[in-house]
Amino acid sequence: MLTKPKPRKEFECILCGYKQSKWFGRCPSCGEYCNPVEREVPAKRWKQLESKKPIRTKRPVCNSQKQLFSIFTDDLETCVITGCKSKGLYGVHIHHVFGGPNRSKSEKYGFIVPLRYDYHDMSDYGIHFNRKMDLEYKKLCQEYWLANIGTKEEFIKIFGMWW
Predict the structure, then answer these.
(1) pTM for the complete prediction?
(2) Residue ranges of the domains in the chain?
(3) Lower Cβ count inside 10 Å, N or C end of the chain?
(4) Separation of alpha carbons 75 and 118, rounded Å
């Protein structure tokens, strides 16, 4: 009895368009954390994916296609804590105050914070491991929401909870 072959999948970085056959959390091409899009791959392209050669689209790299803004600062290339301006893996990272499924909502309302790599996720005192700092920024966003955007109930409806 013949069975239909199992469909093969590829994962594409939503920021720069990099594609590979295995899931990734941090894009090997642009170095940003993202939630790659999963797609089925035609058989003729599967061999190219398995060869592990980067497949790029014509889309611009990373945040150049997005007009990000922050309620905390006008300069997204400078850490709000240290004033550091360096770029790359050990430079300034963009932290989404409300991550996971609320990541795009954080971008929409300006709830993003430029932080030096160690204050972001590469040390014990970084915001991803420091609950107190994380809650401070969440509460500042909520205060901004109440003063400039809407009500507590609307916030909960959009973000799922009140911190």
Answers:
(1) 0.59
(2) 1-62, 67-159
(3) N
(4) 19
